[in-house]
Amino acid sequence: GAETPFADIRIDMVRPGVLRLTIDRPKARNALRTQTLREIAEALDAAARDADVRCVVLTGGPKVFAAGADIGELAAHDATSILDDARPGHWKAIRSFPKPIVAAINGYCLGGGNELAMHADILIAGTTAVFGQPEVNLGIIPGAGGTQRLTHAVGKSNAMLMALTGAFIDAQTALAQGLVSEVTQPELTEDRAITIAETIAAKPPLAVRMAKEAVLKAHEVGLEQGLHAERRAFCQLFATEDKREGVSAFLEKRRPAFTGR
Ligand code: CAA
């Protein structure tokens, strides 16, 4: 792929329509310093505006996805300075990214790293992946949505076990609890995520975008409001050329040619 101007991440078009974003700060175990988060937010912002990007694969290194917030930065903050922290703004940009993200996770996926992984829409883990929210060991708690997203993903008791004890879970446990969708051999994790992303990249982008938005609503609002949002998006898609094309192609027993309109 092309060289990127970033220091802590690499981006490349790994397949047509699929942008790969690799966290690459191995000396600090991919700890997410403010600059790392800013670079991820900037890369996603550009990807949101690039029609050639249909899906993102988010990955780290073979031994560590990301070891959490940069503890050196945390050490420099007190209760006043943390209020003006730039990081919540970067997290907001990441969670507002409208296209699908598939995470490929090998090795340590801890603290803010696990919170970043949970910003992905689909999580694929290698057998060596280890997940945890060890913030309690530092006298703090997860600060980037972990208490909420982890609870939605694995349920109250499992989330409490991780957040209160700081204990790690392995990939098989993460699979059993619903934190990840699949567990692969570590050398195949990224390939599997890319294959899923390629499949998504070939789908009509408006339908994909609205499906992501509607599924995320399930964690934000009550059932009636969520059903209403789903209905509205469903009806809007009836105005698209890709809906006409997808339905016609099925009835005519041919492959659809989607245009994104
Ligand atoms: N922040 C800053 N530096 C980190 C780091 C982090 N989160 N994790 C690792 N590093 C650094 C170490 O300080 C060390 O630096 P030096 O080489 O300069 O000494 C280097 O990375 C290698 O670390 P280890 O020697 O510890 O590597 P290891 O392979 O033996 O262990 C690890 C890996 C299990 C991930 C271990 O480094 C670790 O436990 N890291 C901290 C995990 C953690 O507590 N994360 C939560 C952070 S708080 C948070 O994330 C808040 C939030 O919700 C936003």
Automatic annotation (TrEMBL):
Entry keyword Lyase: yes
Gene Ontology molecular function terms on file: hydro-lyase activity
Source domain of life: Bacteria
Entry's Gene Ontology BP terms: fatty acid beta-oxidation
Keyword tags: Lyase
InterPro entries in UniProt: ClpP/crotonase-like_dom_sf, Enoyl-CoA_hyd/isom_CS, Enoyl-CoA_hydra/iso, Enoyl-CoA_hydra_C
SUPFAM superfamilies: ClpP/crotonase
Record-linked Gene3D superfamilies: 2-enoyl-CoA Hydratase, Chain A, domain 1, Lyase 2-enoyl-coa Hydratase, Chain A, domain 2
UniProt key word Ribosomal protein: no
CDD domains: crotonase-like
Family: Belongs to the enoyl-CoA hydratase/isomerase family.
The protein's name in its UniProt record: Enoyl-CoA hydratase
Species annotation: Caenispirillum salinarum AK4
